[in-house]
Amino acid sequence: MNSLIKILILLLLISCQKAELDEKRIIGIGKQLTHTEFSQSEFEVSDIVKIGNGMKKKIIELKKNATAFEYGINNGDFEEPFGNRKADGILTITTDYKDIGIRLKYDKKLDKFHILGWMTLAND
């Protein structure tokens, strides 16, 4: 009986842990976004379910005005009102023009990320 309780507790702890973000894959998303021409009517990034028009316009703006791109990842979500604790992580794209943060949620079934939203970040 004692062993059964220990096993159940262990299973509960394992199931409650958030999946580790795949840093290499998320950085790849940032690179694909900033190195792709959005002039095509049908455009895809392999690890993203859908890219909305607002996101496309922001990336086009960044590409026109920035000369350097750096990528980073933060676990979790933006504070309210910009986030709602549903994002697994934030992909940050830092440039010499403006910086943006993209809220990502992993979809295990599709093995891709959903873009939940994005925002321009304050440049320090």
Mind explaining what this structure looks like?
With 124 residues, the protein is of the alpha+beta class. It has one domain. The protein is built from three helices and four strands. Strands 1-2-3-4 form a four-stranded antiparallel beta sheet, covered by helices on one side. The protein is elongated and about 65 Å long. The N and C termini lie far apart (57 Å). The mean pLDDT is 84.
Keywords:
124 residues; alpha+beta; four-stranded antiparallel beta sheet; 3 helices; 4 strands
Q: Averaging pLDDT over every residue, what do you get? A: 84
Main sheet overview: 4 strands, antiparallel
Catalogue the unreliable spans. Answer: none
Q: Report the portion of residues in β strands.
A: 25-35%
The ordered H/E elements are HHHEEEE
Helix content: 25-40%
Class from secondary-structure proportions: alpha+beta
Across the major sheet, the strand order is 1-2-3-4
Query: How far apart, in Å, are the first and last alpha carbons?
Result: 57 Å
Give the domain tally. Answer: 1
Q: How many strand elements?
A: 4
Integer-rounded radius of gyration: 18 Å
Query: How many H/I helices?
Result: 3
Short note summarizing the structure:
With 124 residues, the protein is α+β, with helices and mostly antiparallel strands. It is 32% helix and 27% strand.
How are the elements arranged and paired?
Elements: H1 2-16, H2 23-34, H3 53-65, E1 69-75, E2 89-95, E3 99-107, E4 112-121
Antiparallel strand pairs: 1-2, 2-3, 3-4
